[in-house]
Amino acid sequence: MRTDPFGRSAYEQRPQRRGINLRWIILVAFAAYAAWSWFGSKQTDPYTGADAHYGASPEEEAELGAQAYQEVLGDAQAQRALVPANEQVSQQVRAIAQRLIARVPQVAADLAAEHGQPVPDLSNYQWDVNVIASDEANAFCLPGGKIAVYTGLIPVAQNADAMSVVMGHEIAHALLRHGAQRMAQQKLVQLGQVAAGISGIDQQTMAALGAGIQYGIVLPYGRNHETQADEVGLMLAAAACYDPAQAVPLWERMSQLNGGQRPPEFASTHPDPANRIARLQELQPRAQAFYRKYCSGQGAATGMR
Fold this sequence. Notes:
30% of the residues are buried. The strands form 2 sheets. This protein has a 3-stranded mixed beta sheet with strand order 3-5-4, sandwiched between helices. Strands 1-2 form a two-stranded antiparallel sheet. Strand 4 (139-142) and strand 5 (146-150) form a beta hairpin. By secondary structure, it is mainly alpha-helical. The protein has helices spanning 10-13, 22-40, 58-78, 88-114, 154-157, 160-175, 178-198, 203-239, 247-254, 273-282, 284-295; strands at 42-44, 51-53, 128-132, 139-142, 146-150.
């Protein structure tokens, strides 16, 4: 074998091949699958015209919502917190829900037309509403149309118009299929976490990636959903002949809960109250147009009746 003046063989002089980096292969493979899964699920949301990604079918989502609702009602019954349907507060809340639900098909069609989309399929919504005795100032609407209102919300709302804004917002979450959208996002995040774990990334880097995902993806995603639900819910309340202007004082009151203490917007799933109020003020002309279209000659509801 030939050697050079320094005694090295020709074999030793040739550059050595680098081994294939398994970590990068794993990351690239997971990234490709995640991209295929994410973009493969992309659709246009008919209510907002925005891109949306769904992690479950409407039927699956409605089934999950019904199961979760039965668990909530079962817990409320066990705690004797489920308010009977014949009590006045239940009748008042149910009356608001009925007016809102009755306008869902028209508002869905109007918003879809604005964005050049087909009318959404509402066949998987089986609406139901219950009132739960609790100091919590809250309400929710699960996928498939399962609504619950906590009695602690009533003194904050103060009137039927404001209550309709809250309930319209919660119904909008279900119409916009935010539950299925969160499932798609969670699947994407979990894929990233699994890929990072398998590839052997150290704990410090994992923690930094987790924080980046939380503050850069998860929380902004939640805030965007809240903003969408505010918009669609306000149009629904206005079309149901409730005064949309009551949304502003409602959120002023909501902002004072817990002494006005809250995390900064970047660390929350909800918009800052001041930003939320500003957006609701911007939406007033559009909401008033919905009111005029569906409620010509009718007065706004002002009491919890």
